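Appendix B, example 12.
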Amino acid sequence: MPLFDFRTSTIGSGTRSKITILQEHIRSFLRHMTLPRLKNLIASEKNRITGRASINSMPFFLKIESTGLCNLDCKWCTGSRRDRLPGERSAGRMTLKQFKRILDQTGKYLFRINLYGFGEPLLFPETFKMIKEASSRNIGMVISSNMNVVSDTLTEDILDCGLELLIFSCHGTTGKTVQKFMGNSADVQLALKNVENLVKERNRRKQRFPVIQWQYCVTGFNEHQMEDARATADRLGIDAIRFIKPWFPPDAGDEWYSSLFPRRSFTRSDYKAQSCSWPYRGAYISWDGGILPCCREELYPVNDFGNVLSEDFQSIWNGDRYVQSRKLIKDPDSFKPSCKTICSTCPVLGFKPTVPQWEQNSQQNT
């Protein structure tokens, strides 16, 4: 594996956005550094670089889905606003008690938790309690929100809970464009007003956090509004805006692909120099406790590597599925036939991904 691997989970559209993302990661690491976390980080990177399968380190960041329920209906999202098919994970909410169980097993080593998945975290009050709990343990907290929330206390709740980074997810600047991506319930004016109120009150209090970043998924039908988005972000006082490459299934319509991120066909040779650091550095935990190496194919519990609400985290972390996946990452050609985890269909490693049934149905209906 490469000695230095600074790729982040979100790919920026240019050097400036990549630097912004990287700087925020570095600041968070320094802010929450402790001796146990530093020792674990060093051990984790040593395990990654040497390609060990059974490792003597713990993840130093987690992505935890506090809820799979959402108020919008983004195209191609696995969110809750459709009927579940057989074998798919139901949509629900994690309790504060369950969240604390995860922290008790992993918090000593964590620099950061991204408290979001495929739902809207600000829909429910326990999200703020989770952020407060983790912040009290010196863990940096991040959420991603569509900010389509009607609440008289939203601004105060966000500012008072200890949130470090708020990712504002909005993919356009007009109602028509935003609704094409995020569904007919999306209200861009409500979202922008909520963000404006948050920035004004944060500045009035002279608070540093949360840092607010606008995340804008670029498509063919919204790229013409990028300059307007930049101007809006400057006007509202948003700290940064990043234009990112969204994920769509291979046969999504041409309008979903932009000149910035055109349609491509990938082969193993495209990924020859890449590897995956997730099974060494972090994990994705669904609202029901299911653990996956990342958020890919989280909709199917059969892909879970274990369940942290009923099993010991460390036993899962060095369990058979994680060991298989780390062997595959070190030598994809040799271990592909024997690896039975979701990693064996990951395009990052150059393998052909499976197309879930819900995506097949969606493609047939477009």
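The radius of gyration is 20 Å. Residues 68 and 119 are 4 Å apart (CA to CA).
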